[in-house]
């Protein structure tokens, strides 16, 4: 009983320190203030330091007054020309403590916006490789289509279900397709930094075959999905191993890349022959 009382008093003392401190800690009261715009800027720039963002506050608004206040912030990353919005609010704490808890979706929303930035910046480089990467608007249209494909024992799943949609034709080489996967991987993991993948989770790059001259993307044939960060595997050789059926003793990334290129080439030739 004495030990339990000591623990309870220690926990209460810790909470009091957090509540009375001038810093923006996680815990607050029901009448407390959410994270400020400056707090959010600091969080994002610290978490994604490898990307070297430079955030500027565009506007702020109070969406809900106290208790449990919720604010809306519009921010701009000058370094990458990215606009994004986020909320900062006070909600009931998940821990068994009275009062409130500060939360914000700034990290995820910035990472999602950066994902769109990655997609937009790859598009120009794919034109010379007979590869077409969809724009954000095209991707949204495909994702809302009701088209399906058959998997397993006849189950139907959406045909267009991924973070990036890539269309190849008979002139696309397997090597170019494999190099695109590597390019996207390094953009998500710059300088081997895991912040983007840690925040966003699994990244899916879906590949489709679309004959030259065919402009209707919905008539494309599904080839495969290249997955990044599956089961938490972030190193390039592990990502490759997750996506191709290499013998267990092959761990060299260069060899695995050739296997991936050969697999893409086989899929492209197979689709072109139909």
Strand fraction band? Answer: 15-25%
Number of individual domains: 2
Instruction: Please give the radius of gyration in angstroms.
Output: 24 Å
Summed over residues and divided by their number, the pLDDT gives a mean of 90
Q: What is the percent of helical residues?
A: 25-40%
Describe the structure.
The protein is α+β, with helices and mostly antiparallel strands. It has 2 domains: 103 residues, no CATH class; 162 residues, no CATH class. It is 40% helix and 24% strand. It has a 5-stranded antiparallel sheet with strand order 1-5-4-3-2. It has a 4-stranded mixed sheet with strand order 6-9-10-11. A two-stranded antiparallel ribbon has the order 7-8. A hairpin with a 4-residue loop joins strand 3 and strand 4. The protein is elongated, with a radius of gyration of 24 Å. The termini are far apart.
What are its keywords?
single chain, 11 strands, 2 domains, alpha+beta, five-stranded antiparallel sheet, about 270 residues, four-stranded mixed sheet
What's the short version?
The chain is an alpha+beta fold. Helix content is 40%, strand content 24%.
What layout of secondary structure does this protein have?
Elements: H1 2-20, E1 27-28, H2 37-47, E2 55-64, E3 70-77, E4 82-91, E5 100-104, H3 106-126, E6 131-133, H4 136-143, E7 148-151, E8 155-158, E9 164-168, H5 174-188, H6 195-200, E10 203-209, E11 221-228, H7 236-243, H8 253-273
Parallel strand pairs: 9-10
Antiparallel strand pairs: 1-5, 2-3, 3-4, 4-5, 6-9, 7-8, 10-11
Helix pairs in contact: 3-5, 5-8, 7-8
């Amino acid at each position: 009983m004495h030990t339990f009382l000591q623990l309870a008093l220690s926990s209460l003392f810790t909470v009091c320190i957090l509540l009375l401190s001038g810093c923006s800690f996680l815990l607050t009261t029901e009448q407390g203030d959410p994270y400020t715009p400056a707090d959010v800027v600091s969080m994002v720039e610290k978490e994604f330091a490898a990307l070297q963002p430079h955030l500027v506050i565009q506007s702020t608004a109070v969406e809900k007054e106290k208790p449990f206040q919720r604010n809306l912030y519009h921010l701009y990353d000058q370094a990458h020309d990215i606009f994004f919005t986020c909320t900062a609010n006070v909600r009931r704490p998940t821990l068994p403590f009275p009062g409130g808890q500060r939360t914000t979706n700034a990290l995820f929303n910035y990472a999602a916006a950066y994902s769109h930035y990655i997609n937009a910046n790859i598009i120009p480089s794919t034109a010379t490789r007979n590869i077409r990467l969809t724009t954000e608007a095209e991707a949204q249209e495909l994702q809302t289509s009701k088209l399906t494909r058959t998997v397993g024992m006849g189950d139907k799943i959406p045909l267009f279900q991924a973070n990036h949609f890539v269309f190849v034709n008979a002139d696309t080489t397997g090597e170019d397709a494999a190099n695109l996967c590597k390019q996207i991987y390094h953009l998500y993991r710059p300088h081997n930094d895991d912040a983007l993948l840690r925040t966003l989770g699994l990244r899916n790059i879906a590949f489709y075959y679309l004959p030259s001259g065919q402009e209707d993307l919905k008539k494309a044939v599904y080839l495969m999905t290249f997955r990044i960060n599956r089961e938490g595997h972030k190193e390039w050789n592990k990502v490759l191993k997750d996506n191709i059926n290499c013998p267990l003793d092959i761990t060299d990334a260069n060899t695995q890349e050739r296997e991936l290129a050969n697999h893409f080439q086989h899929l492209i030739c197979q689709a072109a022959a139909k």
